[in-house]
Amino acid sequence: MEDETMADLSNSSERIPTGTLDPALQKKHQSMLERLSERHQTRLARKSDSPDSSLESTSSFLSRFNDCKRSIDTQLAESSELIADPSRLKSHLVDISSSISNLEKLVAENSYFLPSYEVRSSLKTISDLKQALENLNSELIPRKKFAFRNKATKKDNPIVTEPSGTPSEKSSSGLPEKSSFLIPESPGFRNKENELLVKNFKGFEMGEFTLSDLDSCEVRLIGSARAIFAHRLRNCRVYAGPVTGSILIDNVEGCVFVLASHQIRIHEAKACDFYLRVRSRPIIEDSNGVRFAPYCLRYQGIEEDLEEAGLHEETANWANVDDFRWLRAVQSPNWTVLEEGQRIESVDISYTDSGNVA
Fold first, then answer.
1. Are 177 and 157 in contact (CB under 8 A)?
2. Nearest alpha carbon to residue 211 among 244, 259, 172
3. Has this prediction a pTM greater than 0.70?
4. CATH number of 188-348
5. Do 257 and 242 touch, CB atoms closer than 8 A?
6. pLDDT tens digit string along 186-212?
7. Residues in contact with 105: Cβ distance below 8 Å, sequence separation at least 6, in sequence order
8. pLDDT tens digit string along 280-326?
9. CA distance linking residue 156 with residue 269, whole number of Å
């Protein structure tokens, strides 16, 4: 009907000479045509973005996701056949870790249109795959090179993931000693205390970057990375430019994070503040006393970095947190929105006079 109206009005405007209309009536007539044209274009745009289109996108994602998962399952099953060749086995497990990271990136890149259930289900699958890989690492690769740490008085200390720093040092700091996430051996800052840590990614492509076993440090990451892993941090302040994939945070306490990413997952966080810009809903698990506010970071060139990462628009998802351990319909008591009067002001990390620069 609207298409017919548009055609009729257009035809009538062509039939009526301009000079025969009163100027006010002519202006009103033209305004009506413009409004109908705008409505027509909007309706056409909605057709192209219809639920059927969204369902098709979800179906395409699930097909790719399941294909990748089956491939990883096959790789995991083949691992035990390589136990006689430690070199090939280690390379094989590294390939599996890379495949899982790519699967995680796939979820992050498509999470903006996926239903919440599909995002949660996909992340649970990825978590299970990581746990399976971690179990294989423990079962198939010997840990003898760490035996010198396991003194008779320290048998209850399970730390074996980081080659530097002693178990007694970690215990005295009060940092958690065990992680449910597989932390990659990527570039990063590890085992630091009371230091300013600076990394500038601008000018080259940074893949994964890891922050692990940091106590009372300030971390400044300028530029864009593909993924960030934060593991066993206490009383730290982490300021980071946009991340094109995902951010995983595990076992942190008393920290402040200022982060922008397509996907952010937080596990075992206690008394931490998160200033976020994120395309999908942030996810917390086994966390309490965490507070959320909007992203507030500045440095020279950050707007261009946010634009290239697809994070230039504020989605307000920082306030739409999913608590995977809270299944009731009422608000989870484990997180809150940080009141405006308690938020930090905009942080500028453009200039760094000193610090540990990676």
1. yes
2. 259
3. no
4. 2.160.20.70
5. no
6. 788 999 999 999 998 877 777 889 999
7. 226, 227, 245, 246
8. 889 999 999 999 999 999 999 999 999 988 898 888 889 989 888 77
9. 23
Token output for 220: 């400044």
* Cα–Cα dist 231/210, whole Å: 8
Q: Which residue has the higher pLDDT, 65 or 160?
A: 65
Non-local CB neighbours of 349 within 8 Å, separated by 6+ positions:
220, 222, 239, 297, 298, 299
Euclidean distance between CA atoms 147 and 42, whole angstroms: 67
The structure tokens listed for 35 are 């409004």
Query: Which of 2.40.50.100, 3.40.50.720, 1.20.58.1250, 3.30.390.50 is the CATH number of 58-140?
Result: 1.20.58.1250
- CA–CA separation, 77 vs 94, rounded Å? 15
How many Cα atoms occupy the beta-carbon half-sphere of 313 within 13 Å? 6
CB atoms within 10 A of CB 92: 19
Both structure tokens of 118: 């599909």
CA 115 – CA 289 distance, rounded (Å): 27
Give, to the nearest 10 degrees, the angle between helix 116-140 and helix 86-110.
170
- The segment(s) of the chain belonging to CATH 2.160.20.70 are 188-348
- State phi, psi for 201 to the nearest 5 degrees: -90, -10
With 0-12 CB in 10 A as exposed, 13-18 as middle and 19+ as buried, what is 109?
Answer: middle
Instruction: Calculate the dihedral angle through the C-alpha atoms of 292, 294, 297, 298, rounding to the nearest 10 degrees.
Output: -170
- Phi first, then psi, for residue 191 (nearest 5°) are 55, 55
Radius of gyration of the chain (CA): 26
Return the number of other C-beta atoms located less than 10 Å from residue 58's C-beta.
Answer: 15
User: How is 183-252 classified by DSSP, letter by letter?
Assistant: ----SEEEEEES-EEEEE-TTS-EEEEEEEEEES-EEEEES-EEEEEEEEEES-EEEEEEEEEEEEEEEE
Closest-CA residue to 200 (of 350, 63, 6)? 350
Task: Fill in the amino acid letter for 2.
Answer: E
